[in-house]
Amino acid sequence: MSKLLLVCEHESAAWERRWESLHDMSTDVYPPRAGLPQATSEVRPLRMLHTSDVHLGAYTSQPYRDEGHGEQLEPALAAFKHVLDLGVKAGVEVVAIAGDFFDHVRVKRPYVEVAGELMAAVARPVVILPGNHDPHMPEGIYQKFADAFPSNVHIIASAEGELVLLEDVGVQFWGQAHESYNDFSPASARPAWAHSGEQYIWRVAMAHGYYVGMGESRYSYQIRSSEITSMDADYVALGHIDVHEGVGEGGVPAYYPGAPRHSGGATIVDFAADGVTVRHEMHEGAADDPQSPNPMMAAHLH
Ligand SMILES: [Mn+2]
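# manganese (II) ion complex -> structure
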């Protein structure tokens, strides 16, 4: 008995050390993009929440479950709500979801409606880029249940690329939506950035795919470092990988936020005249979620 207790205590101490080290994840700072207006007065600061790979409906299509103490959101929806809460608490002005928001096309309407209600409650714009699990197609979630998405949600609908211009917030999003399960190059098109009048509008490029740098890979949906550079964005919001990871050649901030359950958090991005700051933050439900942080995460920390 005492031996067992000792083992448990030892494991819990190790867990806490690991937990602390995750909380210490780096804050990365980037100088302003070349081409950004020099006059600080023309550049309004912006804070954004970036998440991806929520995989809603992966385990159940029941939005709630009852564990004897009342109905609670099922774990994937609960993790998503925790991520949204993290953003609201941080005072973000906009939310970006970079693909695989839903796990598959068979997710049922009541479940999608709850996801819609959670986003409506955020009361600020949410931009969704469909990924390879939730492509924008007639039988897909976004078209089948279009009316379940509240008016603050903007869904990028074209594989050729589409601009979502949020002038009031001072930000624009570019992305190429997955429109089928076929392979495609999600960062190959040149963004059609809008040019503002008096005030600079931040440029966020979204892409759901696999970063291969300059090399080759057997994986689908490849994103190359040259594509990230040539998008001419202030930030590249990626999705497709479960762990939080910065990629690219260093000049342009390009990040995978990590899945809410596996990475235990989301990415908060600050845009300002003096540069872009990127940090991964753990959400409040992470400590209680058996899926997060994923043991694989340590291998991907850098
Ligand atoms: Mn994916």
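# post-check
The domain at 28-300 is CATH 3.60.21.10 (Purple Acid Phosphatase; chain A, domain 2).
The first strand starts at residue 27 and ends at 30.
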